[in-house]
Amino acid sequence: MQNNVFKKTIITSITLIILTSFLFSASPSYPSSMDYKQNIKRANTEPITNNITVSLNEVLQYTLLYNPELKAANLNIDGMEALVLQSKSYENPELETELENVGVNAFSIRIGQLIELGGKRSARINLAKLGRSAAAWEYEIQRLTILVEAGKQFINTLKTQEMLDLLEQSYDIAERSYQTALSRKKAGVASEIEILQTEKEREIIKVELEKELNDQVLQIKLLSLYAGDQSNFTQVIGKLERPLSIPELSDLLSEINQSPDIVTWLIRTEELKILEKEAKVQVVPDLSVNAGYERNNVSGDNTFLLGFSIPLPVWNQNKGNKKFAEINSYKAAFEKKAMEIQIYRDLHSIYTDFENTFIEINVLNDKLIPIAKKTYQEAQKFYGSGKLSSMELLNYQRDLLENEMRYIDQVAEFYKLKYDLELLIGSEINIRTEG
User: Fold this and answer.
1) Which domains does the chain possess?
2) What is the mean pLDDT of the chain?
3) For residue 70, which of 138, 271, 289, 307 sits 20 to 30 Å off, Cα-Cα?
4) CA nearest to 150, candidates 213, 229, 211
């Protein structure tokens, strides 16, 4: 069942995002490193270049391994790790020498070291570590986003295949109708118009079939791009199963705090706190200590030197930067509220489409398609007895085909909306399906 396969593959990524929110709310400490391929089944990681068919699980595995966007995001974490290493560095010492009369009368040499005070170094290190952690969680969010996009593209490909199957069946029916019309004409019970009408319907379905065949090539190519263009398959394995239930909107609203957007905001909040602290400690002057040796060639005296210097924060007390950092922290609370409102709006909008699609699927499956199918079967009987024209029979056949195509389209749309909701709230949505 493709829906369950997809949920099993992305649940670990969703869980990581959920755990992130707890980490940020409980402690400012973050993991230093992560194994970003830990969730991939290594038993099946050979390139799938020779595969004719491919499952959703295979597509997602190779997306995790070979997707270029994820590779770039992973390298970004390595880059942030390098910046953490750099943030721990101390200022280089300074070497100073002075020659009096080009060293004839006297010369001196000194070495000085800047000592950062007020917690500047620790604030710098914490900010770099936060940047590394932010990159890690941004990778997790991007990974989930790309997995959802790959899953939706898989649904598009699967929908195209099911459309092809349906159109092939319809083309066979149209061909039989055409042949029946030819036989009826030979028997003297059908006109040339009837033959032309059935031939026209057959050609219309043939054109639609060719369009879907071209679309299938495109959809499979787009799907392969998510896996880093590692695949050369010709069709996907799966079935668009009818959903039997959907969650209540209130249940989804209760999961809103697990949203990837909330996690991103939490990272930003921690960063603002460190920047505010950094602005406050900048007013604390740093101490410069130096030591050296001086030789007076005229008197022959040798002198050992020890000194220090410290700037006096008289004119510049960094008030502007401190105020700016405080305002940004205060502004973040309003940004969070605005973001929550936007998430609520998006959730309501997507859920409305999700619910309407679910309702239409049930109406199509339980009422419209059975009625259209029964009507077409009855029409065939009347047509066989000469009580119905070929044009009327074709209309009933077309009505059944359109309802069945609409059903496939809506089921595919349902699963894509489901993935959009899961991405929005950062949590799995459990749905019972037929089969």
Assistant:
1) 2-90+121-284+322-425 (1.20.1600.10)
2) 79
3) 271
4) 229
pLDDT at 232: 67
Whether 6 has a pLDDT exceeding 50, the answer reads: no
Q: How far apart are the first and last CA of the chain?
A: 8
How many Cα atoms occupy the beta-carbon half-sphere of 26 within 13 Å? 7
What's the one-letter identity of residue 380?
Answer: Q
Residue 256 is given by DSSP the state G
How many CB atoms within 10 Å of residue 26?
8
pLDDT computed for residue 434 by the predictor: 82
Distances (CA, A) of 312 to 94, 119, 284, 321, 420: 21, 18, 9, 18, 57
**96 strand-pairing partners:** 110
**Residue 53 · residue 233 · CB < 8 Å:** yes
* Rounded-to-integer distance, Cα 246 and Cα 36, Å: 32
Q: Is the pLDDT of residue 20 over 70?
A: no
Instruction: Name, in order, each residue with C-beta under 8 angstroms of 334's C-beta and a sequence gap of 6 or more.
Output: none
| Average of per-residue pLDDT across 133-152 | 85
Is residue 316's pLDDT more than 80? no
91 pLDDT exceeds 90? Answer: no
pTM for this entry = 0.74
**pLDDT value for 36:** 28
372's tokens: 């259209």
Sequence-ordered list of residues with C-beta below 8 angstroms from that of 46, at least 6 positions apart, any chain: none
E strand or H helix at 360: helix 319-363
Report the alpha-carbon distance of residue 78 to residue 32 in Å, rounded: 11
Q: To 10 degrees, what angle do helices 56-66 and 68-87 make?
A: 40
Give the separation between CA 278 and CA 271, rounded to whole angstroms. 10
| DSSP for residue 296 | E
Quick one: what percent of the chain has pLDDT higher than 70?
Answer: 86
288: helix, coil or strand? strand
